[in-house]
From TrEMBL, chains A, B:
This is DUF917 domain-containing protein. It comes from Sphaerisporangium flaviroseum. It comes from the Bacteria. Residues 10-164 form the S-Me-THD N-terminal domain. Residues 168-358 form the S-Me-THD-like C-terminal domain. It holds the Pfam family S-Me-THD_N. Residues 370-392 are annotated as: Disordered. InterPro entries: S-Me-THD-like_C, S-Me-THD_C_sf, S-Me-THD_N, S-Me-THD_N_sf.
């Protein structure tokens, strides 16, 4: 089921990936423009299924690393990604058969597409996060014991750095973060070099086509004046991300955002007639509190979407006065195992709240009449709130 | 003239290298112990002349990078140096025929000896600074257009990073400095991979044997109760470091030292009956002011030596109340060319004072009777103050 991407497919993919980016993963407009430029120049983007490569084919995932707040001030040139891939190929003494995203996000789902178009390299329809996470060890690949090393990290100045921390992917993250900061807060990486058999065994499959489906659902909803959140819920219902729930809709009354230690960190607070929802983020949204109570928590997805259009708003674009809807999406089961939660569950971010599956929190905290955020949960959950086997 | 190092030769070399380290280059006791441990275990240190390798033999210089203030709190284990060399060899696809120091210094003249003993690799009797300098681009190799990249940088944890900034050695310094800080403020490097013909063309020759000569002169002076400063001056007179001058002797009355951005920076002030000398350092001493007037300036060597024994005192070991003598040494002519001064002259350190050769400053500022620091300059300059062709 190889896909050659059209311009409309690209628009859908960029927008859908930014929904899965859960506030992070970079700005979809920048990502879209980078790849659109390639399509307009006659280059092709070939997305291939996770089963379409021979077991021993080398796959080199590609991404940008850094604070999204930096990407929007220092636009990616689309050169450092080639530098990083070529350096890692040379170091390994092997040629990549394909690239793939490390995460789903408005920019980071696009970087492998850009690289694929530039080098005529297919892109595997899968990634290692199934959403966006802020740190390099927060990959299902790491959960399954894949070494992120050796990795390449490049700037737009032609220089490159190869980092090898053996099997210690947390140390790799620390070393690469320091180098990203030194490179100006944003850099191109190729990490977790893998054969295709390992990609199949350890990745979240189908996230590029899922992003296209999400983007198409939002586009169709706008065209036909459907409720975009109902459209999203419907689009997700038959996927491994089965629950899509509108948690809150309101006006942004406070944004506290700093670029610290190479990350965009902060909180955003929304208000709806005295009801409040506060999101805490580290590049991505980590936890949502409604009037002080947990409404959704990492690794479930917490998405900030424009209340009128459903368009994703990334953490670096949050502004006072925006009308936003907080839409949460359940992560696939393979991201809720104890090993997965050790790697990217609440404690990995220093949160003291335990992980509770979104759909379970939704039942507990389902708004009563007086707390109704404007759109009843039931109305946007076609299949109702099915019991879901949480892992803890 | 290959030398197999004896324990006494090692002691002399460590002490003499610390004199050439001009306050930096690391603690000679630590360096000495690291190599002594190898000699006691029966391993050999073979120092070879700069002419003893075939033109195309690969030489990989080795050193430690970081703030000397860190080395004395976090002792080198002598593992990361092997990690760095092996990683660079693998990356280049070639095996090193020899290693060599990047600079002269109490620790950094020892690291290649340690590596040579561990891996049975000869050490070339030369280096790229002819003293110690704080930054990686401050090498005669760089002055002659040799690329420092690719370089390897390793911690004691087994992880390693390869940095390639093409021909931009200043960018290499910045990237490597960030990684050194991330690695805890001290790291092992192998940089400026060169063939032996390039080593011959671009290095300061004979600095290991010069360090042994300096160390032996100090040892003999102590044994025979000679003035150590006269002994130093005599030992230097027939070398390319022709002028050795005692500038000042006094008591340390102030030390202002911070570890900033990966360097030990600060000033030390000495007093002798109201006369004062202040040294400013960045790992190494950069400029000496006597009562506000420049008495010596980088790249000439400004050495802080114990007033009684002549033993070098590195910047991290400076303490209030020490009785120190400030001994300056003229750099070889090949380090005073306009290109060399661009690379490691006063302006490269942000100093506004112009470079003036030590021997010229000494004539201008020769102490009068009332300013006599205790030891007359004439008495320690056997050949008198010969006119020396300064380059600017």
């Amino acid at each position: 089921m190889a896909i050659t991407l059209t311009q409309q497919g690209l628009r859908d993919l960029a927008e859908g990936a930014a929904v899965l980016g859960t506030g992070g993963g970079g700005d979809p407009h920048i990502g879209h423009q980078l790849v659109l430029h390639q399509l307009r120049a006659g280059r092709k983007v070939h997305i291939i299924g996770i089963d379409e490569l021979p077991d021993d084919a080398l796959v080199l995932p590609s991404a940008m690393m850094g604070a999204p707040t930096v990407f929007i001030e220092k636009l990616p040139s689309g050169r450092g990604n080639i530098t990083a891939l070529r350096a890692l190929e040379k170091h390994l003494g092997r040629t990549a058969a394909a690239t793939m995203p490390t995460e789903s996000g408005g920019l980071n789902s696009m970087i492998p597409l850009l690289l694929g178009a530039q080098l005529d390299l297919p892109i595997v329809d899968a990634d290692g996060m199934g959403r966006a996470f802020p740190e390099l060890q927060m990959e299902t690949w790491n959960v399954h014991g894949v070494s992120g090393s050796p990795m390449a990290i490049a700037s737009d100045h032609g220089d490159v750095c190869l980092i090898d921390t053996g099997s210690d992917n947390i140390r790799m993250e620390r070393r690469a973060r320091a180098m990203t900061i030194e490179m100006g807060g944003a850099a191109y990486i190729c990490d977790y070099p893998m054969d295709a058999a390992t990609v199949r065994r350890t990745s979240i499959p189908g996230t590029l086509t899922l992003a296209m489906k999400i983007g198409a659902a939002l586009r169709q909803a706008r065209l036909r004046h459907y409720d975009p959140f109902q459209a999203l819920t419907a689009a997700l219902a038959d996927t491994i991300y089965s629950h899509g729930l509108l948690l809150f809709a309101g006006k942004v009354v406070d944004v506290d955002r700093r670029t610290v230690a190479g990350f965009a960190r902060g909180t955003v607070t929304l208000d709806d007639q005295g009801e409040q929802m506060t999101l805490t983020f580290q590049n991505e949204h980590l936890i949502a509190h409604r009037n002080g109570q947990v409404a959704a928590i990492v690794p479930d997805l917490i998405c900030t979407l424009n209340s009128e259009t459903g368009a994703p708003v990334t953490t670096e674009a949050l502004r006072y006065g925006q009308r936003l809807s907080i839409f949460a999406i359940s992560t696939p089961d393979l991201m809720r195992t104890p090993a997965a939660l050790d790697c990217f569950g609440p404690a990995a971010f220093g949160l003291t709240e335990p992980y509770t599956p979104l759909e379970q929190l939704a039942v507990t905290l389902a708004p009563t009449g007086e707390h109704d955020p404007g759109t009843g949960l039931e109305a946007v959950t076609p299949a109702g709130l099915r019991a879901h086997p949480g892992t803890r």
